[in-house]
Structure formats: structure tokens, C-alpha cells
From TrEMBL:
GO terms for molecular function: nucleic acid binding. Residues 111-133 are annotated as: Disordered. Coiled coil: none annotated. InterPro entries: Integrase_cat-core, RNaseH-like_sf, RNaseH_sf, Transposase_IS3/IS150/IS904. PANTHER family: TRANSPOSASE INSF FOR INSERTION SEQUENCE IS3B-RELATED, TRANSPOSASE INSO FOR INSERTION SEQUENCE ELEMENT IS911B-RELATED. Signal peptide: none annotated. Pfam families: rve. This is Integrase-like protein. Residues 11-133 form the Integrase catalytic domain.
């Protein structure tokens, strides 16, 4: 699902684990090369629920980070009426069929921002930018 560009979401989150934002950022580690940091940020609390640092930026890296987020939040051990929705950009790892299948198996909805305009998503990008400084 691609949402229409707007300044903010019409339906704002009112509690934790309603909407998780995910993004990658890249870091150069001296002597090792480039690595990619995958993060999952809770939209309501603004806390980073999970993160993973690795040499690739694949759908499997996204699912590994989401598995960690589900475990840390306890949502993988209990039956809940609504799993968190996932908000991402349109990067190749987020539009991959493997991720879509994984999300379907977990009962999670995926919302992708309109190309070149991701309302609210800048929170996840700002948290990543703070790490690079």
C-alpha cells in the first residue's frame, strides 16, 4: 500500500506498538568498511525497539530486526488483536517479496510512504542521522 503525500498522518498513534517505522542508515567502520544499521522505531514512544548492524541491506536483515523487535516487545509470545503496522520507504529491501511474505505470516500490515515524501518517516531517519554524528 502506498500512502498519499501529506504533512502528517490523519490517524495518529495513541499507544505504543501501533506503528513501527523502519529504516537503514550506513556507517563506515574504520578498518572494516561500510555497514548498514537497520532500526525499528516505535512511532508513539519514539524509542528504538530493535536494531541490527550488518554488511548487507537485504529483506532478511529487515526481518531479523523485526524478529528482534517482536521478541523485545513480547508480541511474539502473546496473541494480540492487532500487530504493529510497519512504515518504511520504498527501498529494495522493503518492496521485496520475501518481506511481504514474512509480514503476511506474522499478520503485520505494511505501509510504504509515497516516493520522495514520507510523512512521519523522517523520525526514523533523524534517529539514524543522530547515530552518524
Amino acid at each position: 500500500m502506498v500512502i498519499k503525500a501529506a504533512n502528517e498522518f490523519k490517524d495518529k498513534t495513541t499507544a505504543v506498538s501501533q506503528l513501527w517505522q523502519t529504516d537503514f542508515t550506513y556507517l563506515k567502520i574504520t578498518g572494516w568498511g561500510w555497514y548498514y544499521l537497520s532500526t525499528v522505531l516505535d512511532d508513539f514512544s519514539r524509542y528504538i525497539v530493535a536494531w541490527r548492524l550488518g554488511p548487507t541491506m537485504c529483506a532478511s536483515d529487515v526481518t531479523a530486526t523485526l524478529d528482534q523487535a517482536l521478541a523485545v516487545s513480547g508480541l511474539d509470545h502473546i496473541a494480540v488483536a492487532h500487530r504493529p503496522r510497519l512504515l518504511s520507504d520504498n527501498g529494495s529491501s522493503y518492496v521485496a517479496d520475501d518481506l511481504a511474505k514474512w509480514l503476511d505470516q506474522k499478520g503485520m500490515q505494511h505501509v510504504r510512504g509515497a516516493p520522495y515524501h514520507d510523512p512521519g518517516k523522517d523520525r526514523a531517519e533523524r534517529s539514524s542521522a543522530g547515530i552518524r554524528r
